[in-house]
Amino acid sequence: MKWGRVLGGIICLAGAALLAVLNAVLPADKLMFMVGDKNRPIMPVIALAVVGVALLVTSIRWRRV
Predict the structure, then answer these.
(1) Contacts made by residues 21-29, CB under 8 angstroms, sequence distance 24+
(2) If DSSP states are collapsed to H, E and C, what string results for the chain?
(3) Using one digit for the tens of pLDDT, what is the confidence trace for 18-56?
(4) Burial of 26 by CB count in 10 Å (0-12 exposed, 13-18 middle, 19+ buried)?
(5) Residue 50 falls inside a structural domain
(6) This prediction's pTM
(7) Is residue 64 part of a domain?
(8) Residue 11 domain-assigned?
(9) Nearest to 54, CA basis, from 20, 15, 12
(10) Is 37 among the domain residues?
């Protein structure tokens, strides 16, 4: 296993979970992430989750038998 990628994946997923909780708890005007002219605070959560899963999947060392 590549431990750097595992750690990075876990950190990204923890950040995504934290942002998701903040999204649910805080009012819409407190957590801002503007895409164009609209507030889309869920976009960083999705991006961090995708990067975290990608890092965890690519951390596995594939062996040929």
Answers:
(1) none
(2) CCHHHHHHHHHHHHHHHHHHHHHHHCCCCCCCCEECCEECCCHHHHHHHHHHHHHHHHCCCCCCC
(3) 999 999 999 888 888 888 999 888 999 999 999 999 999
(4) exposed
(5) yes
(6) 0.85
(7) no
(8) yes
(9) 12
(10) yes
Cβ neighbourhood burial of 48 (10 Å; 0-12, 13-18, 19+): buried
Asked if residue 1 has pLDDT above 80, the reply is no
Distance CA(54)–CA(2), nearest Å, equals 13
Q: Total domain count for the chain? A: 1
Q: Residue 39: which domain range? A: 3-58
Q: Which two tokens stand for residue 49?
A: 């989750």
Phi, psi of 40 (to 5 degrees): -125, 75
